[in-house]
UniProtKB/TrEMBL annotation:
Domain named Signal transduction histidine kinase internal region: residues: 299-375
SUPFAM superfamilies: ATPase domain of HSP90 chaperone/DNA topoisomerase II/histidine kinase
Protein name (database record): Histidine kinase
Annotated InterPro entries: Bact_2-comp_sensor_kinase, HATPase_C_sf, Sig_transdc_His_kin_internal
């Protein structure tokens, strides 16, 4: 989340500087205009401000405002069908502005004999305006898709595992596609070959990644599919088909708009979407198996760390010492808490999601059991502020306890002043969890010195798998303190 917000600020700054730079270039280039000679050849009056500067500045400003609107609002503040409508309206607005501005920039066409009537001239402006807008939005959609992939936690994990080889492959593939496209254009290749390479291939890839990464994953499990298709997939497919058809007609004028649009629509419905669905289902099954395996390994590792002999001996010694001091009153309490913890680990720990209330009960039992060990140590301060969460909230089991275990393991010393601070509360379905503790280097003879239990890296991986784009984990460490801040949108 933090990285995305920082990127948005940089993105806005670069867009603003670029818009200002282009306006400055346009305003200072008084003697340059590639179409200027066309006005005199076609006996049409030319004015620098009317036929060049004002329409060009209008295009730059509208493009800049639409880019800011899309990147700063539509991408982050809207979802689903409303986002699609805003994308479509932005495209239509840009196409309209371009068409109007072209009537001034290319006004010489009104005197050109190649156009039989004024209606033909206006039609050429309309087609070119929508074509240029389509190109601009395709470039923007590719840019938007790359941003979503870059900020996807699963993609980060894949790139980390493959050492960036997949990203290198994507970049090289795009370069190869551009090189071949330039070669086809330079050698006057057949219009059909250019259409296939410049339109059909990118269209197929766009539809493939859009369906497998965005549309199909968002498919509701309980709601009827028909409403989802009608509200999301169908409008997107119709819009992309329209843009692709505009490209086809612009490249080869004899191509029928209705024929090309119908052909692309049939191809999408019969081949592309079913193929995307099959690939997505296979990938989802593999990811589900990996998630289950990671969760099982985490649970097994934590179970072993909790019931290893060292932990049991410490717990029994604590209970025995307490029994001698207080005639077994606190011993019964400690045994009860230990029993509750064992029942939790044997039953609720095996579920995918549990009530947050039960997770908090386990945390409290663990903390209370640890407090028995340090109750008579005056130099150890334990501050616990855990509020009662809402009963309906669910969470992945054993997700919070590693941070507390880590605090008691590294933050407590019977020979030096120590402290641990634990805070937990919920607000608007969001969990806020903070753990802060002192740090003490364990002596060489301590059997726990080289044991890390479940480990924080494992918790980070589980957070990425269970709550992608729905959590923020901040870990800071100094020479004397260790701090963890975790927020989860439950």
């Amino acid at each position: 989340m933090k990285a995305r917000n920082t990127y948005q600020k940089i993105e806005l700054l670069i867009a603003t500087l670029a818009a200002g730079f282009f306006i400055f270039i346009a305003a200072t280039s008084t003697n340059y205009y590639s179409e200027r000679h066309q006005f005199s050849e076609n006996h049409i009056g030319y004015d620098f401000n009317t036929n060049y500067l004002r329409p060009l500045v209008a295009i730059i400003i509208v493009s800049y405002l639409l880019f800011v609107f899309l990147t700063q609002y539509v991408e982050t503040k809207t979802r689903g069908f409303f986002k699609i409508i805003l994308f479509l309206c932005s495209y239509l607005l840009l196409a309209f502005i371009l068409s109007v501005c072209f009537t001034y920039i290319f006004a010489w066409r009104y005197g050109n004999e190649a156009y039989a009537t004024q209606r033909d001239v206006n039609a050429s402006f309309f087609v070119e305006g929508f074509a240029v807008a389509a190109v601009s939005f395709v470039i923007y959609l590719v840019y938007y898709g790359l941003k979503e992939l870059i900020f996807s936690p699963l993609l980060k994990q894949k790139l980390k595992e493959s050492n960036g080889s997949r990203l290198v492959f994507i970049v090289l593939s795009i370069l190869a596609w551009l090189i071949i496209l330039v070669m086809l254009s330079a050698n006057n290749a057949a219009a059909f070959a250019i259409i296939v390479w410049a339109v059909i291939l990118p269209y197929a890839l766009l539809m493939f990644y859009l369906n497998t990464l965005v549309l199909i994953p968002a498919l509701p499990e309980k709601k009827p599919w028909s409403s989802y298709y009608l509200s999301r997939i169908v409008p997107i497919v119709l819009l992309i088909n329209f843009i692709a058809t505009v490209f086809c007609v612009a490249i080869s004028h004899p191509v029928s708009f209705i024929g090309a649009y119908t052909l692309l629509l049939l191809w999408t419905g019969v081949a592309v979407i079913p193929l995307c669905w099959w690939i997505y289902k296979n990938q989802k099954e593999k990811l589900g198996l990996k998630t289950a395996l990671g969760s099982s390994q985490a649970n097994l590792g934590f179970l072993r760390s909790q019931i290893n002999p060292h932990f049991l001996f410490n717990a029994l010694n604590t209970l025995y010492g307490t029994a001698l001091q207080e005639n077994a009153e606190r011993t019964g309490e400690g045994i009860q808490k230990l029993g509750d913890m064992m029942r939790f680990m044997l039953h609720e720990n095996m579920q995918d999601k549990i009530l947050l209330v039960r997770e908090v009960e386990y945390l409290r039992n663990y903390i209370d059991l640890q407090l028995l060990r340090v109750a008579n140590a005056p130099d150890i301060q334990i501050l616990v502020r855990i509020e009662e969460p809402a009963a309906a909230l669910l969470i992945t089991p054993m997700l919070l306890i590693p941070f507390i275990e880590n605090a008691f393991k590294h933050g407590i010393s019977l020979r030096e002043p120590s402290y641990i601070s634990i805070a937990l509360h919920t607000q608007n379905n969001t969990l806020y969890f903070d753990v802060q503790n002192s740090i003490h280097v364990k002596p060489d003879g301590d059997p726990e010195k080289f044991k890390s239990g479940i480990g924080l890296p494992n918790v980070k991986e589980r957070l990425q798998l269970e709550y992608p784009e729905r959590h923020e984990l901040v870990i800071r460490q100094t020479a004397k303190d260790f701090f963890v801040h975790l927020t989860i949108n439950l």
